[in-house]
Every structure is written in structure tokens, then in C-alpha cells.
Amino acid sequence: MGLLNLDDDTPGKFIKDDIKKLQPLVNAAAIALENARLFEEVRKEITERKQTEKALAESEERYRTIFENTGTATVILEENTVISMANSQFEKLGGYSKEEIENKMKWTDFVIPEDLERMKKYHVARRKIGEKAPTEYEFSFIDKKGVIKNIFLKVGIIPGTKKSIASLIDITEHKQAKEKLKKTMDAAIDTMSRIIEAKDPYTSGHQHRVCQLAVPLARELGLSPDKIEGIRIASLIH
Fold first, then answer.
1. N or C, fewer C-beta in 10 Å, the chain?
2. Is the pTM of this model over 0.70?
3. Is the dihedral of CA 74, 68, 163, 103 positive or negative?
């Protein structure tokens, strides 16, 4: 709102014709003032928008830096199973570049058929209210060259979205070392069992018969794999 004031002490100085002549000037001044007010509002809005965009860009860059430097292969998964983001560690794990992966490949492309249906069920259940899916488990991963790797996966939903974030750790060497150690232990236990049996021919085969009975019974009782393995070893060398 603006006010244009013309003042003169002389009586009858301004006549109606003068006022008519001044009216366009008054109108133009009013429009100019309104335009100035609107311009200031627009300028303020643009400034605030730029500040918001800058803050969002800084926040996005901060989270992208964290995502890129987690130390493990990490991906963002969409509800339709598409991989929308992948870090450099995942590039190394899968053998594909980000350009080949992001918004083009699905996580299902990296899973062996034997694990696929199970993991698809987890993926759907994780996005349904009231349903539960494991957040940590192992599966077999296929890279670009067809090499199968043992992977430990940790996954969770990003709050307020249908997206999930998953971290993958290659435990292939650990699994191979564990399997090698188990074979070595099994060979040693078998040797000990045979030595014990050789000392008393009347009980020959006893340890193996006990093992054949004890292990299925332990499984039937729902004991953990570690406890079942302990029972197997104990029955062979008792």
C-alpha cells in the first residue's frame, strides 16, 4: 500500500482537471509499489529455496560419502528388486561397474537359484506390516565371471520408504578354512576311534554305531548344529 500526497496552502489551487491529470501517475505509482512488494517476496522465496537446495545437496553428499566408505559392499534396493545405488566395494565383489549396475540390474541377478526363492520371500515380507524377515543370513553370490562366493548379508528397510539397504561381506575364505579344519578334525577323530577299537576287538564298530544313533536323536530333539557336532565327536571317541 502507498500514499501520494500533494499539499498547497493556496485555496482552490488544485481543480478537478488537475486531479484527473494526476490519476494516471497515482495508478502507476501504486502498480510500481505493488510490483516492488511482489519482487521482494519472490526474491526472498528464491533465496530460501536456494538455501534449502544447498542444504539438501550437502546432506546428500554427506550420506553418499558415508555410503561409499562403509568398508563393505553396500547397495540400495528398490521394492521391485532393482539396485538403485551401489558403492565401489560392491563393484569389486560383483565385477560390474556402477554404470552397469545402478538402475539396470536386480539383486536377483547375483543369487544362485537354490537361494533365490527363499530370498525373494524375505524381500517381500520385509516390506509388509506385521511380517518378519531375517536381517542377517548367508547366501551364495554369483559374480560377473560366474564365480560363486559365500556371502554374509545384513539388510534393513530405510525408514519411511520401501527401499532397503544391504551390506555384503565375502566369507568365502573363512568358510573354506573352516571346512578344511573340519576335514582335518574328522580325520583325526576317525583315526583315534579306530585306535580305540583296535585295542578291543569285542567292541569293534561300537563308536560308529553309537554315532549313528546319537546324531539323528540329537537332530530330532532340535539341538543346535554346534551341539549336534559335539555329540558326534564325543560318540566317536568315547
1. N
2. no
3. negative
Neighbours of 86 (CB within 10 A): 25
Greatest extent of the chain over all pairs of C-alpha atoms, in Å: 143
Give the closest residue to 137 by CA, choosing from 119, 114, 121, 116.
119
Q: Three cell numbers at 162?
A: 520401501
Instruction: Give the confidence band of 45 by pLDDT, cuts at 50, 70, 90.
Output: confident
Which of 12, 39, 69 corresponds to the end of one domain? 69
Q: Looking at the structure, tell me whether residues 141 and 182 fall in a common domain.
A: no
Residue 190's contacts (CB-CB under 8 Å, 6 or more residues apart) are 236
Q: Are 92 and 168 a contacting pair, CB within 8 Å?
A: no
| Cβ–Cβ < 8 Å for 190, 184 | no
> How far are the Cα atoms of 110, 124, 145 from residue 95, in angstroms, in the given order?
11, 27, 8
Domain boundary among 121, 145, 170: 170
Range of the domain at 10: 1-69
